[in-house]
Amino acid sequence: MLPLVLTGCAGRHNWLASAGAEAQAVEDLFWVLILGAAVIWSLVIGLAIYAHQTSAPRKEPQARRFIVWGGAALPTLVVGGLLIWGMVILRDITAKEGDLTVRVDGERWWWRVIYDGPDGPFTTANEIRLPQGQTTLFRLTADDVIHSFWVPALGGKMDMIPGRETSLTLTPLEQGNWGGICAEYCGGAHALMRFDTIVMPPDDFRTWLAAEAAPAEIAADDPGWQVFLDEGCGACHTLRGTEAQGPVGPDLTHMASRERLGAGIYAMTPENLSRWITDTDRMKPEVDMPAYPHLSGAELEALVTFLMSLE
Ligand code: CUA
């Protein structure tokens, strides 16, 4: 049964291949529980078979000793030990102040991510970058319905509840791109509500943070920027430092620097972006963004080139 159940555990969503301190603590507890349970189960079954096969009656003091040690003392020791260990782990993984604080809001069906930049808070979306070996405190909330924030390889998960703030601490230890998912059914595109969690060396992270905090670099005469304005993209999306200040959809200030689009589901390529703009519903059913199939070939190309320049 175990291999069958574990066939789903592979790749970057594998919580049994921990890449963070909090996930490691839970994984250790899991293996001790599984292996310990296997040992105790074998012992009980072995004794049952033995009892079934021996017909000689037991002497009473021997039976009483067995009941006291095997039935009371051993379980008390094992369960008590697990309780204490579990409480130590709980203390270690409970949210606490970190080297860094990131706010994440769950939206249908994407993630609004707010960092403290060098000049104050700024917003990005659907990709979280973290410094390796440092502790990050996540402050979580939701805009509409209950979501759940989970990066299986790093730790978690934690519900995101409208009108209430929950928190979670993650200490990534290994560099890499660890997948994040929404772990609470939240509507039609729940399964497509994903994000990337990119763990990088602290120095690289600081460089990235400074670049990400900067406003968008736009040439006023860029034809794609004109299409962006004419089609009213700025009513929903923000490009920091420009007149586009829409708060509804993901912030696009440095969208081309992200690895994926559509909340962690498609590679960030010009082809996928074109399809996203003209065929949004098919790329992600039930998404709020309307499709723009009426754009001419030249307009679409200009818009995609412009958006892909926002690094
Ligand atoms: Cu958000 Cu499921």
From TrEMBL:
Keywords: Copper, Electron transport, Heme, Iron, Membrane, Metal-binding, Respiratory chain, Transmembrane, Transmembrane helix, Transport. InterPro entries: CcO_II, CcO_II-like_C, Copper_CuA, Cupredoxin, Cyt_c-like_dom, Cyt_c-like_dom_sf, Cyt_c_oxidase_su2. One of its GO terms (molecular function) is copper ion binding. Coiled coil: none annotated. It is a multi-pass membrane protein. GO terms for biological process: ATP synthesis coupled electron transport. It catalyses: 4 Fe(II)-[cytochrome c] + O2 + 8 H(+)(in) = 4 Fe(III)-[cytochrome c] + 2 H2O + 4 H(+)(out). Its main location: membrane. Residues 97-211 form the Cytochrome oxidase subunit II copper A binding domain. Pfam families: COX2, Cytochrom_C. Residues 219-311 form the Cytochrome c domain. GO terms for cellular component: membrane. SUPFAM superfamilies: Cupredoxins, Cytochrome c. It is found in: Membrane. The chain crosses the membrane at residues 29-50, 66-90. PROSITE patterns: COX2 (PS00078), COX2_CUA (PS50857), CYTC (PS51007). PANTHER family: CYTOCHROME C OXIDASE SUBUNIT 2, CYTOCHROME C OXIDASE, SUBUNIT II. Subunits I and II form the functional core of the enzyme complex. Electrons originating in cytochrome c are transferred via heme a and Cu(A) to the binuclear center formed by heme a3 and Cu(B). Belongs to the cytochrome c oxidase subunit 2 family. This is Cytochrome aa3 subunit 2.
